[in-house]
Amino acid sequence: MAKIKILGGGGEVGRAAYLVSDRGQNILLDYGVNFDENDRPQFPGHVRPIDLTGIVITHAHLDHIGAAPILYITGHPPIVMTKPTLDIGRLLIRDFLKINAFYIDYDLEEVENMSTKTIAVEYGQEIELGGFRVLLTSAGHILGSSMVYLETPSGHRILYTGDINTIQTWTLSKAELWPIKIDTLIIESTYGSTKHPPRHETEHRLAGVIEEVLDSGGTVLIPAFSVGRTQEVMCLVHAEVPGADIFIDGMSREITSIYLRHKTYLRDPGLFEKVVEHVKFVRGWQDRRKIWRRPAVIISSAGMLKGGPSVYYLKKIGDNPSNAVYLVSYQAVDSPGHKLLETGGIDEFGIDRVNARVEWFDLSSHAGKDGLLDVVKRYKNVVQNIIIVHGEPDSSSNLERIIREEIGEDISVFRPLNGDEIVLD
Ligand SMILES: [Zn+2]
Ligand SMILES: [Zn+2]
Fold first, then answer.
1. Most exposed of 118, 170, 249, 268 (fewest Cβ within 10 Å)?
2. Which CATH number, 3.60.15.10, 3.90.550.10, 3.30.499.10, 3.40.50.300, labels domain 3-194+365-423?
């Protein structure tokens, strides 16, 4: 009989880690980290590498891959993911190690060991691991992101969504749900209580205000995550604000070259190549000191203004009311970006008041509650168990409520905590 143990991601966003066991074989779905209020990494529950038949990683965000190299300190289990996930994941893990080495048990050697044990798969390509059948399809979240269809040795079928987006964006197609029978759905719930506004409206509004600022001679700073959000926003600005000078700064340059290397994973590779030709990548301080002095759009990490060149630009342009700072990424409570939105200043940077226009735009790469419910509707006639993970308690309990309204009482719905084990039948 198949069972699932929640090693992380129970009642929390991030630290995804779910151990599926059947007939003495064990597959780990994701092995990510989380960060506490002091930004220290928190790791998921322990699993012995020797007990693992294999690992499947849905995507390159650290909350899904960041703990995986631990399993290569004493072991060498096979690990399945797409090529973009491996390439982006290695870059993010290296950066993670640089900042947090003190708190992390593994080193670059384990990251390399993990890479050599990687089975790189394409979407739709089925592989077999110790009696488990594994198939990845596109999740629409970041480049190479996947959902996992998993059939256990005794024939129990599971769909794990990973992080999922159910709308088409500039860079990616929406999540690809296959019309096949599943017994258990493991679904994320990051925005289980949020209804995102229609994307085209948000984009239209953002393009409009960018144009206004540029027309009046101002500069627009868009702090953005370097994976996904930067590429998304540069396509949007290129298409909707024709003629705008667009500069990209931060780690996004390397990430964008990975996007280009794996362009078959993009929704429209031709469009993306054209945008990359048009935008200018900031090469160093010589560029950085110049570009904010004239009308331009600067897309820069870090997305929550936690550091990186976006903080430099904020200090340079923030005083002048002709300029604007448009936040487009998730802003964690107590992050500098959140403080800027709440108070108009950021005390830790010594900025009492930002005079530039400040606004937040919802360009999330996660499905909102409607999108998540759509996934449930697709499988409601076949599924027996729904396991809600990767969400704060408010959000996951709201999703549970609306799922219940949709499906009635015949299906089991679980909202497990870390350490819980669920027997699937
Ligand atoms: Zn996640
Ligand atoms: Zn993610």
1. 268
2. 3.60.15.10
Dihedral sign, CA of 111, 115, 119, 124? positive
The residue length of the chain stands at 425
- Domain at 199-360, CATH from 3.40.50.300, 3.80.10.10, 3.40.50.10890, 3.40.630.30: 3.40.50.10890
* CA 61 / ligand 2 centre spacing (Å): 5
- Beta carbons within 10 angstroms of residue 162's beta carbon: 25
Instruction: Give the pLDDT of residue 135.
Output: 98
Distance between Cα 65 and ligand 1 center (Å): 10
Q: How many CA atoms lie within 13 A of 265 on its CB side?
A: 28
Residue type, 412: S
φ, ψ of residue 205 to 5 degrees: the values are -65, -45
Distance 97 CA to ligand 1 centre (A): 19
For every residue of 187-203, DSSP letters joined together read EE-TTTT--PPPHHHHH
Nearest ligand by distance to the CA of 9: 1
Name the pTM for this structure: 0.97
Q: What's the 166 CA to ligand 1 centre distance in angstroms?
A: 15
Give pLDDT, residue 268: 98
Q: Report which bound ligand comes closest to the CA of 139.
A: 2
Rounded to the nearest angstrom, the distance between the alpha carbon of 141 and the centre of ligand 2 is 7
Q: Which ligand is nearest to the CA of 30?
A: 1
pLDDT of residue 317: 97
Residues in the chain where the model's pLDDT stays below 70: none
Q: What is the pLDDT of residue 37?
A: 85
**Per-residue model confidence as pLDDT tens digits over 155-207:** 999 999 999 999 999 999 999 999 999 999 999 999 999 999 999 999 999 99
Report the pLDDT value the prediction gives residue 334, as an integer from 0 to 100.
87
For residue 281, which amino acid is it? F
Measure 160 CA to ligand 1 centroid, in angstroms: 12
Check residue 411 and give its pLDDT.
93
Rounded to a whole number of angstroms, the distance between the first and last alpha carbons of the chain is 7
